[in-house]
Amino acid sequence: MLRAFKPVQRLLGGTLRDLAPLVLVIGFFQLVVLQQPFPDLLEVGIGLVFVVIGLTLFIGGLEIGLFPLGEAMAVAFARKGSLAALLGFAFLLGFSTTIAEPALIAVADQAGKAAAAAGVVADRPEAIDHYALWLRVTVALSVGLALVIGVIRIVRGWAIQVLIIGGYTGIAVMTAFAPPEIVGIAYDSGGVTTSTVTVPLVAALGVGLASVIRGRNPVVDGFGLIAFASLTPMMFVMAFGAIWKHI
Amino acid sequence: MIDLLWTTTLSTLLDVAPIVIVLGVFQFAVLRRPLARPGRILLGLGLVIAGMTFFLVGLESALFPLGTTMARQLTEPAFLGTAAASTDWRDYGWVYVFAAAIGFATTIAEPALIAVALKAAQISGGAVPPLGLRLAVAFGVAIGVALGCLRIVTGTPLPWCIIGGYVVVLLQTRVTPRLIVPLAYDSGGVTTSTVTVPVVTALGLGLAAAIPSRSPLIDGFGLIAFASLFPIMTVQAYAWLASTWSRWAKARREKAAVP
Predict the structure, then answer these.
(1) Is the pTM of this model over 0.90?
(2) What is the Cα–Cα distance from A136 to A217, expressed in whole angstroms?
(3) Contact list, A66 vs chain B (CB under 8 Å)
């Protein structure tokens, strides 16, 4: 029991340090700039305690469970030697985690409203929902594809710059042709796709693969999967906006 | 709060379910290999889900309402002290300060970023210090969100800013140590998940609604894109500075050693 206490203490200390800036910023603006009293101080206090407990448990669980799991699966896939199985896994991992992502659901709903305001979609709830659903499917497909490309890159050892430059050029060209009301949403959708549970798993997978495959450096080749997952949605959403407008 | 705890548990489980299904199917049907230490991994998964739940409940009952209310209050004409809603970018000073401060503070508390920083420190053998990386990313988000707010106020077209930003990122890549480049690109995507998105989105929508001739639906977007672009620049800049500094210090030591 005592042995288990030390890491908990270390984690808790780290969490408190991580949250201090947030508390300071909100406190300063609330009391000094806006000069408003704190509403429901008790509830805010309980909420903060919850945040501290939650972050501590999350990071503990990450080190015990999620990181070893991601690495073990990367090693198992490399031993099995089937690229098709590995790519299928990467695609499904990207697709399934993105389609249910709450931040994406929120952005897709707003995108539906923006499209209705621009007159691309009929201003009826079912038409907007239909649009938002297809937008989510599009983004989920693009994240699945991003992980597939990213895994191929790790296996083949391509330099990341080449793919990123290609992606940025694609985005710049597509921006010129995409309908203006979709551009802002497309740019934002890149950032919201990678959720808090997906990131550690994807990072562990990439680093695990790069450490198992001979001739790859885990630092140089292991990272980059998340970068692709935030790049392809921008292109796919712009393509989606342009196609939707013309059918 | 008990209600919120319950609904958040359900939504976290729903969020994690597809991941667990995909992992399970591949582990047992494709890889057909028993998991090493299954008990420990299950415990870890349980802790992650419980941690996410507590974290989100705490944020939703304590910090998000405050953050979103403050974003609204800071953009109200009554606070800004202008007669009507103003279009002069100089009237929104506190908005930029708040944007930078809240961007920095939420990024330091972002669980996904902590995960990537831990991983980077582990595989680089400590060459990439976790706190240094997180500070570099947090400064990037702070600059990004503040400039993003300035863009909403001035109404500069978003594509110009983003494509211009990409050009800077690519130019920086030429002088950044090769080890850090993929990590820098990744740090753009991980900065904006659980904590940062809701507060930053509220800020953008409030700002676009407060300024005449801006539409929240079209001009309110773009802050997240800014918040994912600038960390790539600051992480590359940090790595470049660190390597230049160590090269310079080494050269000076060698010079001192030769009499």
Answers:
(1) no
(2) 34
(3) 44-45, 48, 115
